[in-house]
Amino acid sequence: MKFRLSKYLLLSLALFIFNSANAQVDDTSDYNKSVVIGNIKPSPSSSTVNNVRIISAKTIEAQGAVSLKDVLNKELNVRIGNDNILGSSLSLQGISGQNVKILLDGIPITGRENGNIDLSQINLSNIERIEIIEGPLSVIYGTDALGGVINLVSKSIRLDSTQTAVGFGNAYYESIKQTNFGGGGIFRLKDVDFGANLNRNFFGGYNLDPNSRVMIWKPKQQVFGSFSILYQNERLKLRFKTDIFNEKIENRGLPVINHIEAYAYDEYYLTNRNINSLSIEYKTTENSYFNILSSFSFYQRDKVTYRKDLTKESYNMSIVPSPDANSTNSFLNFMSRGTYNNTKYDKFNYQIGYDINLNSAFGTKIEADKGHMNDYALFACAEYRPTKRISLKPGFRATYNTKYSAPFVPSAQLMYTSRNKNLIVRYAYGRGFRAPGLKELYLYFVDFNHNIIGNPYLKSEMSDNHNAAIKYRIKVKGKHLLTIDNSYFYNTIYNQIALVAVNPLALEYTYRNVDNFKSIGTNLNGSLVFKSWRFNLGGSYIGIYNNAFALVGKNKYMYTPEVRTQISYSKKNKNYAPTTFSVFHKFNGSTFGYALDEARNIINTYTESYHILDISVNQSFWDRKISFTLGLKNLLNVTNITATGTSNSFHSAGNNSMPISVGRSIFTQINIKL
Length: 674
What we know:
- By secondary structure, this protein is mainly β.
- It has a single domain, classed as Maltoporin, Chain A.
- The protein has 6 helices and 42 strands.
- The strands form 6 sheets. The protein has a 22-stranded antiparallel barrel.
- The longest helix is centred in the first third of the chain and has 14 residues, at 5-18.
- The protein is globular.
- The chain starts with a helix and ends with a strand.
- Residues 1-32 and 647-654 have low confidence and may be disordered.
């Protein structure tokens, strides 16, 4: 796939012109699902100025996806990295996960390790849909939103007028020693709905040598839970929600055996996350309302090292007293975000609001008087429609940060909709600002596998981001729906913060402002609904460029392709719901580029290409109250790929490879709602 970007753009344009017939649309698939993220009011995705991608609960179930990592691993413009201690990492449009904000019902998820939220820690059993906006949303969501925002929307706990209680449960098994189960319920007491759920995920670990106690993929146990209270009348909606998460990762050490004793040093990584939120929405009139969302989040990660006596059936364990063998780090975040939304007028709607974020960090290697950063902001945006077909959405954000001088951040968006709503053209520009995170400033993470030290002298990042998209829908012979979606992006990040090698021989890393980073690319997606079939075929072509390219005389971008295919077929049955067969495939092309280490030396970076291929079958019974899914994951048995000089190579084990998966597996899943 060695072709120039210009040829790809011409191909995109040709496909667009070929399908530019005049036809009416119908409201099928996810095209008109209500979107919350980035909007003045919840609106169908077809009418939002932002270009939003939606992943529904139906797609999540068909994939047998357990965590956010499982779903995003098959999305275009998304690359997933893995570290078996720090967890999975994310890049969107070539921009790293530190610049991608992940929200749960509009609340930022805390707890970044090496700048990334571990996607495997985000459970999907209680998620209704996932909303993705690529490109800057710094005006609305502030720091960490330079590259985009991912919002997970929880399933509603609101019962209808005929219900007093609902129960649900789920179970999942995968042949790689993965066993998950959970359940919960909703009940009504007078005018108040109460909801609760609890899930446990267990992974037994994996290693190529079954006789070795050292696991390449570490044994892991996770517990997720939530509790919600909802009161709602015609004007007022109150919701209190608590989300809890607990994880234990076991890193078993090599045994030491001699004629006197046999022992090993085992590390345990313990993570606790708790998010408490209160949402208040009050309608002042039919077309205007206040919304206040406040949360208090706590994140703690402990490392504990034990010396285990292997000569006894039940291990005799004692904590290793060395300070470097044990650590604890805690992060607190208080967030309050309030908006007033007015949608009274057909041609002019607006939103004004405030955003407060108070962050604190405490730990064995963080000085108490330095681990604080607060952020106070005012923002506003308006949507103006000079005609029925054109929408303009300007916005701005003014921020005061207690550690960094924050600039005035503007944004501008434009949308054109054709008369029959078949054609939608969008353009968005955003200025971005990101203050370094407390972990980038003060992290001290040193063990057998890692040596990462924060840098308190980092500068803040700035960015300019441009996104354009064309979406076209037609009917074929009046029955079959064809959708063409073509988008383009161009991003520049100034003073980009990167993890660089201070001492490559000793594997010592820290954070530095080393790059002015650029990414450019395009996506082309086609979707066809034909009788009982649904076909999705998409491709992307992404190029990256940074300071290191100029130093080696390379003034052109390094490009990498991606291809995504999804095919589903629903076989009708007389006495029960249709049986759905699905195939999911994604090709991630190889990447090659240049980076700088601490001494400004050039490092070649390379990641090998690979394929992901899954298949599944889904069947519902008893009026869709029971759903059963059976499938195969990673049919091509991809386990590790070659990866050198990448940000995932800061640990001592496997410097020239990146783990992708445990291997080929069979999974089964059942969901029950009563």
